[in-house]
Structures are given as C-alpha cells and as structure tokens.
Design a protein that fits this description.
The protein is mainly β and 406 residues long. It folds into 2 domains: 2-272, Immunoglobulin-like; 294-400, von Willebrand factor, type A domain (Rossmann fold, 3-Layer(aba) Sandwich). It is built from 5 helices and 28 strands. The protein has helices spanning 116-128, 296-303, 324-339, 369-380, 392-400, and strands at 2-4, 31-35, 48-50, 53-63, 66-77, 83-90, 95-104, 107-110, 112-114, 135-138, 145-153, 157-168, 170-172, 176-181, 188-190, 195-197, 213-221, 223-224, 229-236, 241-244, 250-255, 266-272, 279-283, 287-291, 309-316, 345-352, 356-358, 365-366. An 8-stranded mixed sheet has the order 8-7-12-5-4-17-21-20, with no helix packed on it. A hairpin with a 3-residue loop joins strand 23 and strand 24. Helix 3 (324-339) runs antiparallel to helix 4 (369-380). The model is unreliable at 1-30, 34-46, 185-190 and 196-210 (pLDDT under 50).
Amino acid sequence: MNLLLIDKNWQHLLFILHIYFLFFVQIYGQRLEIKRNVDDVNNDQVQSVYVPLKKVFVEATIHSFAADVTIIQVFRNDEETPIEAVYCFPIEEQAAIYSFVARINDREIVAQLKEKKEAQNEYTQALRENHGAYLLEQDEKSQDNFIINIGALPPSTECTITIAYVTELDLVDGLIIRFVIPTTIAPRYDSKQGGISSPASTTSKYVQKSPYTIKFYCYIKKIVGETGQLIRKVSSSSHPIEVNSDQQDAYVIRFAEENTHLDRDILINIELAEKQVNTILTIESNAVMATFIPTEEDCRQARNNEQTNVFIFVVDCSGSMTSENKIGLTRDAVMLFLKSLPANSQFNIIQFGSNYMTLFSEITVVYNEANLRQAERMVSHMQADLGGTELLAPLQWLKKHSPVKG
C-alpha cells in the first residue's frame, strides 16, 4: 500500500469485510533514518545513521471504546551537511492512521491515501515532469515497515512528524476500558544505564545522548455510549497521573511528574460505574461502531447450545476489491468463518457492490451440511464484479427482516 503525498484528503473508515483498504499501523519502534550523502540516495552502500529525537507530545481523546490519538515527534539534524531524511515505522493491526504530516521549516508534506498502482504511476509521472513528489510505501526488505522520504533536511534544522490515528479500546472484565500507548513511539530511556536503549522488539539504533522531553494529555468523555454510562474512576497502573474533572464533559489526564521517561507503556484504566451492557455508539457522522458484550448467562447458553447463534456475512464485492490480495483473501476469510461456525447456528451471506445479492432469501437458514456446501460454492466463485460500493441497500434489507428468536 502506498501513500502519495499531495494534500490532506482522507476517506471514511468502513466497518465491514473490506479487508484491504483499512490502513493499520501501530506507532512503535519509529525512527528517522538519514543517508549522509543526499546526492547518492540510490547507493545501497551509503551508511545510514539515526537523527536524534528531541521532543515527544502525545494527545488523545477517548470516547467510549474508541480513541483518537495524535503523536508529535521533533527530530533534529546535528550533522554538518544536509541529509536525506527517511521516516521509518512498523505496522500493526491495532491502529488505523488517518493523517501523516512532515514539517521542515516552512515546508509541509501531507499524505493522501492512494491505490498502490495509482500512487506509483502519479509518482513516476511527477518525477518525469520534475515536480516535487513524495511516496510512502512498504519496505521491500521488511513488509511490516513503512518508509517515507521527506526530502533534504539542512544542518541544524528540526523536522516535526505528526501522526494521527484511531484505535479501538479493550474492555476488561466488563468494567474497565483500557487505553495503551506503546512506549516505543520513542526509544526507551533506561535509568539504570543512564541513557537511551532500543526497545526489545526492534533493532533500531539511536544517536541521542540525552533524554528527550515528553508531554502527555488525554481527554476522556465522561459519558460512555448511548446508554449514558458514567465513569467511576480514572487511574494509571504505569505512571503517576493527574486527573482533572473540572471540565463539564471530560476528564483531563496528564503526567503528575514533569520529567517522565517512557520506560514502560502508558496505561490508562477507565473504570465504569457498572458493568457495560450492549452498546451501539455513533462516532461523528461517517462511521458506526458496534460493541456487543455477552453476559455470563449468554455465554453459558452458548456453551450448552441452548440458544441460536446467528451469523450474517456482508462481503464487499465491488470493483475496488479487484486483485487476489483483496477479494482472494476475503474468500479465504469467509470460507474459514463458515467452517468454524458452532453447532445450533443460523447464517447467511450478502454480497454487495452497486447492488446486492443474498445467498438465501430468508434472513438466515440452519447451519447444516447441505447449506454449508451451497455457501462454499457461492464463496468459491466470489469476484470483485459488482461495480460500486453501495452498503446502504443490504443494510436496509437486513433491517426489514426480523432476526431469528432464541
């Protein structure tokens, strides 16, 4: 997946079996890598060094089971010559980046999500026309890393990297919403060693000799979900924090100590006043997040096959899913789900694009050998050939049909 750096346009996230287009990145083990000779950027023999990290600022807004996180990191070129700055960071499933900005002096580079081939074609064309173009893409040597060339960084110049992402939060024991910021957004400061050490999960090297400064602010909405669930307590098991409840609609969290070093993950626990019930939460105007938390009785009935399990697979078969990396992986995933359904289940499959089609005319059918074989035949022939991406119609069809009781 590539990002062509043009403007700040961003498209909405879709909660659906649309596996390929969600861009998941966990912010850990980041580093700003440089090449000493800017004119020799294609020479693999050029030795890479690492730009010192000076400051880190983390700001998060938590609304129920979702967090919007902005991380700002300031790097500085202490070399005597200009350098080509290459920003590297690994990927992970927990976070979805929606904004990436690199700022050097008065230059600002903003990423726009593009299809891989489209981004490569536009990038190549821009180079032919001698236009400034920047490309963010996966590292060929390590597919779990992303790399962006952010241009020449002059001597004694700072570069500010701003990344914003959204992420889901875990619910622990039905009572505590847990928010975690991995410490390896920056190199670890080890007080025993008296300096910086690389995270155990990365091979990054750092040239920094003094600890960076970090500021952390977290805004937690006081009402959780459509049910108006109240928060009983906010605490941290990782760092001393200050909790300010003076604002009418949110708690404001910050570190209690000024010189806080990230030698462990930042962990915030949000304790609810009572155990959370099933919730449907609308986030802004273009995305819906549904949270379903079974009770102990629900789990007991499911274990003993005392209630019907209903599974409806809504699969994106629009033209945007073309290529085996998209529709092929989707077919594999649906096939795996079908073969893993528990006994006493009912199911159906809906394919959608410009229009939609259902495997069975009823809302769901009994999960048995005959119906499973029919579903497998449908999935094996599934293609990205249904045109546009119109999700509303199949959701309306689901709304008109009553679910199976029991």
